[in-house]
Amino acid sequence: MSFWKKLEAVDARVIYLILWIAIGLPLLTPLYLPLSISPDTVNYHKAIEALPAGAVVAFGMDVSPAGYGGELGPQARATAYHLFTKPVKIVFVSFWETGAPLIQDVWKNRFVADAMKDKKYGEDYVNLHWIPGSETGMAAFAEDVWKTVPADYKGTKLADLPMMAKIKSVNDFALLVCIETGTPGGPEYLRQWQARNRNLKMLVGSLGVSVPANIAYMASGQYVSILRGGRGATEYQYILKIVTPTDVQGSDAMTMSHMVVLVFLLLGNLGYLATKGQKGGKK
Amino acid sequence: MSFYKRKELPIVITALCALLMICAYFFKIPEAKSASTTVQTWMLVMVNFSVVVGFVMVIRMHKRRIDKRQPGDKSWLYSVWLIVLLIAYVLLGIYGVESTRTAAPTNDWTFNWVFTNALVALDSAMYSLLAFFIASASFRAFKARTKEAGVLLISGAITMLYNAPAGSAIFGPLAPSFNDLGDWILNVPNMAGFRGILIGAAVGAISLGIRVLTGRERGYLGAGE
Amino acid sequence: MAVDLATMLGIYVYALFALGSYSFTYKDNSFFKFAEHTMVALSIAYNASVAYGYIRFTAVQPVITGKDATFLIPLVIGALFIFFFSKKYFWLYRFPIAVITGTGMGLAMSGTISAQFLDQVVATVRLPLYVVDKVLGFRPMDTLNNWLIFIMVMGTLAYFFFSITPESSLGAATSKLGLIGRWTMMVAFGSAFGNTVMTRMNLFIGVYKNLLRDYTSFLGLAALILVVATLEGQRAKKAA
After folding, report:
1. Number of structural domains, chain C?
2. Do both A226 and A263 map to the same domain?
3. Is the Cβ–Cβ distance between B192 and C156 less than 8 Å?
4. Are residues A270 and A164 in the same domain?
5. HEC profile of chain A
6. Considering all CA atoms of chain C, what is the largest pairwise distance in Å, rounded to the nearest integer?
7. Cα A125–A129–A134 angle (5° rounding)?
8. Do A75 and A125 reside in the same domain of the chain?
9. Is there a single domain that holds both residue A81 and residue A56?
10. Nearest residue of A to residue B160 by CA position?
11. Shared-domain flag, residues A200 and A235
12. CA within 13 Å, CB half, C155
């Protein structure tokens, strides 16, 4: 059997083991590979920097546990940190039942917790927890916040949260930051929130898999900017100067994983071309 | 069959609810807006009851597996574990809601502990299994057999190099226009392709909506007359 | 630094379920089946718990306290979901479905027309086909890119026009434009593949990072699972 045929017949578990090792190496010791910053991340950062004092920001934590653990957690933490360093009011909300408890996980991050020290719950930020109904829930919230959400995540009535006095509908928000896993997410916010408040700016932190579709919304001006998956999260952390050795290791691991897949693609196609030629010769 | 048992009445209800939402959205009629907000708030309550259907279906399915167990086959034990865990975690959730007097069961420490350490682990790991299969497929299945597949492969390879954090930093200086190429692929052909797909999908969604409104689409009402 | 028992137990539970799930890539085994069934149970139970909490405090509470008795209506209609399991009264199940579908469909349609259709069409039509910068003057690359975007969007839309017969002259022109759309979509899907690889790898990296919090749990449980899976595989081979 030729070398290429032997290579093609290799057990899939060997491929899996190579992946474990290739990704594990940088996670054990950071390689400090270089990183460039994309313009989209710079624009994302600028949009939050440009927020005027007192602006009301909706933070949509529409994530699944899987998405949060991979790309969206770093995005959410970096965005929350950045917002907490600004003199703005933040309304945390989620239309994913699994996203709501992760809001508190974001607050536990040491950078975010540090930035929150001077902020007062109820006056500077609130957590309205989960709203069911997917797109209908978004529409109901956009029309009438107080009718849709009777209390916050601890059961405190909205009337007892001072900052909610002036927040009655989507027209009272200046910016929506949506950290999305899928549906409901950015497009649903566009249909139900931005369609009702054309002045509402949107920033979206998305999974890499959603980036191609989100680019179309960004190009049309519906989104101000997006964070492109895990890469965008790392770039944002670098801009905010909150990158830790673990984040660097994650970034290096991302590079190694992509290189491994590219090598596999190359080998697979070289093997195909080589064996295709052999098959053609036999004829 | 009596009229109220046939599908026509629910179809009329569907159409009325949809028309109410459309009127409230496009026209400035305060009564319609108020009515639509009320119906939306009611719908948020109703939709939560649908989880009961899934709950009962899963229990029935696994109870059937337990009843049909064969000697020597131990797979029915997993079904027992599933049913026990399902009921236990729901009871813990209800306890969490009642003891904390809040709508969020994760305000209870134990419920949140299970969520954070078990459910998050399982959800993340199950979805990330695809990483292995993508690597395996890249080696075995993703072959440029046709010109179109070749174009797809090259576009994917450039995107992967561009996405790899060090990729554009390493290749950028080697080929100065590499970053521009990666950017161009994302912002021109990719954007154009997905914009066309979005517009097409929007037309499809609107036509499906009209079909549901006019009662031509009845699949959501289940089988039977 | 002392780690409390709950945190340590949490690390071991996390490792057990993560490695149990990944063990499927080695062999189908009892750890994977255990993880699989646990995930189904916990997912449904979690959804049921949050649904209970929402109904309890949003609808039931106002009805009991008399603050808003109108919530009795969605409670009664929502309860009709249970008739999904009845052959005789299945028709009652259709009422909550009708309300939910109608409401959702009406909202989605309304929003889709502006956000997904009009805005995207306007953005395409408004593309400047001759780009001039006030400072830098004529911009050839931006102009070319805008022309390409315009043609490619038209091409992608033309690809999905199945109602025009290719035999007619309009049909022939549409097919040629559709060919451009096909190549555009190949590039777009290649880009989508590249981005999907990033997402999936990052999901794995996220779990891997958590597994490496404690080497004992990671390596210990990995060894245990590999041994058990291998023994089970050998036993299954002997039995077959």
Report:
1. 1
2. no
3. yes
4. no
5. CCHHHHHHCCCHHHHHHHHHHHHHHHHHCCCCCCCCCCHHHHHHHHHHHCCCCCCEEEEEEECCHHHHHHHHHHHHHHHHHHHHCCCCEEEEEECCCCCHHHHHHHHHCHHHHHHHCCCCECCCEEEEEECCCCHHHHHHHHHCHHHHCCECCCCCEHHHCHHHHHCCCHHHCCEEEEEECCCCCHHHHHHHHHCCCCCCEEEEEECHHHHHHHHHHHHCCCCCEEEEHHHHHHHHHHHHCCCCHHHHHHHHHHHHHHHHHHHHHHHHHHHHHHHHHHHHHHC
6. 80
7. 125
8. yes
9. yes
10. A258
11. yes
12. 22
Does residue C86 lie within any of the structural domains?
no
- Give me the domain span that covers residue C134: 5-67+127-239
Domain count, chain A: 2
CB contact (8 A) between residue A212 and residue B194: yes
- Amino acid found at C186: M
Chain C hits for A155, Cβ within 8 Å: 57
**Which pLDDT tens digits describe chain B residue by residue (225 residues)?**
677 778 889 999 999 999 999 999 999 899 999 999 999 999 999 999 999 999 999 999 999 999 999 988 889 999 999 999 999 999 999 999 999 999 999 999 999 999 999 999 999 999 999 999 999 999 988 988 999 999 999 999 999 988 887 776 676 676 656 667 888 999 999 999 999 999 999 999 999 999 998 888 888 888 766
Query: Can you tell me the distance from the alpha carbon of B85 to that of B98, in angstroms, rounded to the nearest whole number?
Result: 20
Domain spans of chain B, in order of start: 143-225
- Does B104 contact A101 at a Cβ distance shorter than 8 Å? yes
* Residue in chain C lying closest to B94 (CA): C49
Tell me the backbone φ, ψ of residue A176, rounded to 5 degrees: -120, 125
Regarding pTM above 0.90, the answer is yes
Interface test with C, best of A96, A134, A190, A196 (most C CBs within 10 A): A190
> Is C73 domain-assigned?
no
Q: Are A76 and A212 in the same domain?
A: yes
Residues A112 and A146 in one domain: yes
CATH code, domain with A159: 3.40.50
In a domain, C85, yes or no: no
Q: Which two tokens stand for residue A85?
A: 């360093």
Nearest to A16 among B124, B132, B190 (CB): B132
Residues A261, A155 within the same domain:
no
Domain span holding position A23: 3-30+248-282
As a whole number of angstroms, the distance between CA C12 and CA C30 comes to 18
Comparing C-alpha atoms, which of B23, B11, A147, A107 is closest to residue C109? B23
* Residue C111 located in a structural domain: no
Rounded to a whole number, what is the distance in Å from the CA of B179 to chain A's nearest CA?
9
For residue C115, count CB atoms less than 10 angstroms from its CB and return exposed for 0-12, middle for 13-18, buried for 19 or more.
Answer: buried
Query: Looking at beta carbons, which residues of chain A come within 8 Å of B166?
Result: 33-35, 251-252, 255
Please report, for residues A86, A159, B191, B199, C186, the alpha-carbon distance to residue C179 in angstroms, rounded to integers and kept in the order given.
50, 59, 17, 18, 11
